Amino acid sequence: MTEIELKSPEEIEKMSRASRIVAEVLEALRHQIKPGVATEELDRFAEKFILERGGKPAFKGYRVRDKIYQHTLCVSVNEEVVHGIPSHRVLKEGDIVGLDVGVVVDGYYGDAAITVPVGAVSDETRRLLQVTEEALHRGIAQAVAGKRISDISHAVQRHAEGANFSVVTEFVGHGIGRRLHEEPQVPNYGEPGKGPRLRPGMTLAIEPMVNMGRPETRLLADGWTAVTRDGSLSAHFEHTIVVTDAGPRILTKL
Ligand code: MF3
Ligand code: CO
Fold it and tell me: How far is the CA of 59 from the centre of ligand 1 (A)?
C-alpha cells in the first residue's frame, strides 16, 4: 500500500482549477438532459467544453487492467450503477442519468458526478436521488481533521439505509490528486472510527452509489458498465474535497 499524500496549497490550487471545470461541465450538462438526447452527444459536448477551458478529460485513455476507457464521460442510465459508456442510446422521459466526469489541469485531477431525472420521474425515484445526494453531504460533513475515513463511510451508509435504500460495496471512493485514484479507499459502508486518520491537505473523492433494491452489482459484457443485479434503479453523486483546518472544502462546487 502506498502512502496517503497530503497536498500543499499550490497543489490544492491546481486541483481546484481542474475541479472548477468539472463543476462547470456538469452544470452545463444538467441543462441538456431531456428526452431525445443521445448519451454520446453529451460526451462530445463535455470533451469540447473541457478542452476549451484548458483542461484534459481524465477518463479518456484511463487504463483499468487490460482495458482503456475511450470517452470523456461515464453516463449511467437507470439500473446502470457506474461506468456506463456513451452511445447512440437516447434518453427518454422517466429515466435517470448519472454523469461522471474527471478533468486534469497541470497534472492535477478533479472528479465529480451527479444523477439527474429526465423529464418527470416517480416520487420514489426522486427520493432515491435526493437521499443519495444527502448521503454524499453527510459523508462530506465527516471529512474533518482528527476523524477517520470510516466516519465518512458510516455516515453515508446510515443515511442511505435509514431511507430503506442499499449502498453499493463493490465500488468505493478514493484519494485523488496527482492521479485519478490514490490512497486511501473511501468505502460507502462500515463502522465508524476505523481506517486512516483524516489530516489537513488530504484530498478525497467521496462517491456514494445507492440502489433502490438490493446492493449487488454485475458487470455487463462491454467490460465497463456495472448494473444492479436485481435491475433496480441506482443513483451516484460525487465530489472532490479537501480536508482543511476549517473543515471540509468542496472543490467540485461552483
Ligand atoms: N469516476 C470514476 C471514479 O470515480 C472513474 C471512471 S473510470 C474510467 O472512480 F475508466 F472511466 F475512467
Ligand atoms: Co471518483
Answer: 6
In this prediction, residue 157 carries a pLDDT of: 99
Neighbours of 30 (CB within 10 A): 12
Is pLDDT at 125 greater than 80 in this prediction?
A: yes
Say how many Å lie between the CA of residue 165 and the centre of ligand 1: 23
For ligand 1, atom 11, the nearest C-alpha belongs to: 59
Domains in the chain, number? 1
Percent of residues, the chain, with pLDDT higher than 70: 100
Q: Which of 83, 115, 179 to mutate to test the pocket of ligand 1 (most atoms within 8 A of CB)?
A: 83
Compute the distance between CA of residue 7 and CA of residue 177 in angstroms, rounded to an integer: 8
Domain that holds residue 35: 9-250
CATH number, residue 120: 3.90.230.10
CA of 251 to the centre of ligand 2 (A): 13
Q: What's the whole-number mean pLDDT along residues 170-196?
A: 98
Calpha distance 98→84 (Å, rounded): 9
Burial of 163 (0-12, 13-18, 19+ CB in 10 A): middle
Please list every protein residue whose CB sits less than 6 Å from any atom of ligand 1: 59, 62, 64, 69, 74, 83, 100, 102, 111, 205, 207
1 is a domain residue: no
Q: Rounded to two decimals, what is the model's pTM?
A: 0.98
Average pLDDT, the chain: 98
